[in-house]
Amino acid sequence: MSATLIDGKSFAAKVREKVAVQVARLKDEHGVTPGLAVVLVGEDPASEVYVRNKGRQTLEAGMNSFEHKLPAETTEADLLDLIGRLNRDPAVHGILVQLPLPDHLDSDLVINSIDPAKDVDGFHVSNVGLLATGQKAMVPCTPLGCLMMLRDLYGSLSGLDAVVVGRSNIVGKPMAQLLLRDSCTVTIAHSRTKDLPAVCRRADILVAAVGRPGMIPGDWIRPGAAVIDVGINRIEHDGTRRLVGDVDFDSARHVAGAITPVPGGVGPMTIACLLANTLTACCRANG
Ligand code: GUN
């Protein structure tokens, strides 16, 4: 058996196209242009690539992009001051502070200083609480992208067994909330889970978000399951550098029913959902 490849790249292109159409309409009918501010502190090379891609795709969707690159030694007071100004700026509808932040900055404090209505990452405790209680929230972009691909695959997810491997605030926990909201039976597994292979084998939907290259082999996967690989791990292989997921793709593709490749699966959906969240924030701000 060979799994269907879930093509996140073309799915994301369709989402971006739909966003661009709505952005153009907002401009024509209401004279409003959505604006996304991205804040990067320090010079982490991977973060710089992400931020550049976000800026480019924001502009391509017809939105305004505001980039704030701050030195690694920026003080918490200066960062909070910038976020305060972005919160008050009516041209800014979405604010994203790229993580991880340098160690001397308190990420929770910084994220919770963002106006929840502009928190397009969905990381503010208000949005986390709204999502957990089934209210209208800003939903974190990577899990939202995963959910969109799963709904496209299955239609209804109701009653399916979902296992999320990884319990991060960015992916694992919100992914579990979204799957629960769609009436899956959800298990969150992690490094201390007893008999992780057996837990994974129960899954109709297996989401891997641990950041460990190739950790989940094909024989942990239930035949026919949908496998969503959130991992983006940079490794050296035969002297060349390449990206691999948390799932061992070569063995998993013979067992799974459908699988996201790395690259070209979940990754492109994250930025597409960020643009969609920025549009949503702009629409809500303008009634
Ligand atoms: N770093 C890795 N993923 C993310 C994300 O989704 N949002 C932010 N702000 N930082 C990240």
UniProtKB/TrEMBL annotation:
Gene Ontology cellular component list: cytosol
Tetrahydrofolate dehydrogenase/cyclohydrolase catalytic domain segment(s): 6-121
Catalyses which reaction(s): (6R)-5,10-methenyltetrahydrofolate + H2O = (6R)-10-formyltetrahydrofolate + H(+); (6R)-5,10-methylene-5,6,7,8-tetrahydrofolate + NADP(+) = (6R)-5,10-methenyltetrahydrofolate + NADPH
CDD domains, alphabetized: NAD_bind_m-THF_DH_Cyclohyd
The protein's Enzyme Commission number: 1.5.1.5, 3.5.4.9
Transmembrane segments: none
The keyword Oxidoreductase is assigned to this record: yes
MF GO annotations: methenyltetrahydrofolate cyclohydrolase activity; methylenetetrahydrofolate dehydrogenase (NADP+) activity
Pfam families: THF_DHG_CYH (PF00763), THF_DHG_CYH_C (PF02882)
Keywords: Amino-acid biosynthesis, Histidine biosynthesis, Hydrolase, Methionine biosynthesis, Multifunctional enzyme, NADP, One-carbon metabolism, Oxidoreductase, Purine biosynthesis
Superkingdom field: Bacteria
GO biological processes: L-histidine biosynthetic process; methionine biosynthetic process; purine nucleotide biosynthetic process; tetrahydrofolate interconversion
Listed Gene3D superfamilies: Leucine Dehydrogenase, chain A, domain 1, NAD(P)-binding Rossmann-like Domain
Pathway linked to the protein: One-carbon metabolism; tetrahydrofolate interconversion
Binding site for NADP(+): 166-168, 232
Homology family: Belongs to the tetrahydrofolate dehydrogenase/cyclohydrolase family.
Subunit and interaction comment: Homodimer.
Stated role: Catalyzes the oxidation of 5,10-methylenetetrahydrofolate to 5,10-methenyltetrahydrofolate and then the hydrolysis of 5,10-methenyltetrahydrofolate to 10-formyltetrahydrofolate.
Name this protein carries in UniProt: Bifunctional protein FolD
Annotated source species: Celeribacter indicus
Taxonomic lineage of the native organism: Bacteria, Pseudomonadati, Pseudomonadota, Alphaproteobacteria, Rhodobacterales
Originating gene: folD
